[in-house]
Design brief:
It contains 10 helices and 6 strands. By secondary structure, the chain is of the alpha+beta class. The strands form 2 sheets. The chain has a 4-stranded antiparallel β-sheet. A two-stranded parallel sheet has the order 1-2. Helix 4 packs across helix 5, helix 6 runs antiparallel to helix 9 and helix 8 packs antiparallel against helix 9.
Amino acid sequence: RLTTWFEYCIKELLHHLHKDAVQNIKFCFTRTRATNYGPGQTVDLLMELLKKLKIDLLETEDSFEQNTFYFDNEAFRYLALKNNGIKVANREEKSYTHSWDQSVEETFRLFGEIMKLKGHSTEQIISLNRARHVVVKISKPLANITDAINKTIKELEILKKKAENLDLETNKLMPDLYLRIFDIRKMELRRPRTVCTHKKCTNNLNNQTVETEPCYKQVCCEPCYLDYIGVSPETTDDIRLKLCWSMSPSGKCKRCKHSYKHHMHIKCDYKISMKTIRNEKTNESLQKNKSLLDSNRDILEEQEKLLVELKHERDDITIAIAKFDSFLKENSVLPYNDSFGKPRRNENRLDT
């Protein structure tokens, strides 16, 4: 059957390739002696998956023969036995000889098919994976900005509804004289740091405070020099994080006691703040004539302008994300591996 791991592995290979490289893909099957050096059940599963992905490499009889190759390592086992002075029966020796000849024949056939292929520019694959890296890198700050914008819009809409019901009483207008906005700032670090992403070590935004706090409050190693060995930034579950100074031999952090799997190497930090601003024009109107009605109209006008600006900003961000996704869809075999979550959940169950 088409298992999750099988589907995940094939898709993971394909989603790194440019679509123009599809015609250069060849499928090699090992341990095919049991199937008489022909297609077994794995081929049916592979064809089912390729059909699902609309990749027609094995659809016709000619394409099937040109793109599938069958090998077996029984001959190597025979050489190992003979080299150690272990005798085998003549019947088994003939079987090993046939296995060797079959594998040699398939090897030459594979090289022959490869020589017929039109060369594919590796620069296309490199460009594709660079684009995917950019998408992954900016997706988090874009998501944070979009979330801050949506919260601000929601807050302003609530204030607008309240403002519509205000009367001329000052004590009812004063709470709405102040607008709350969410702001997010990116701060480049002088040196990378290692932080803990466990839920116990990250901040939950408190809507009742104006203090600015980092998203990751637990800094376990600063500065951290693991970038010199190629540790990927903004990525958790990197086994190379076990080499960090803050990690014990068991892979747990000396400071926060959480596993290295919950840790991440970052080169920049994001701070979310909630600010309270006062509408000075409204305040002057209140001081002059105590006319709550006029003041309320001023607030609504400013809110509507701010709401329009925020919606424009949200649209710009959405368009930017759509352009990246469109580029990947147009140029890659698979834009994303949608089977990723399944093997990770299975892996987590094995860990527990």
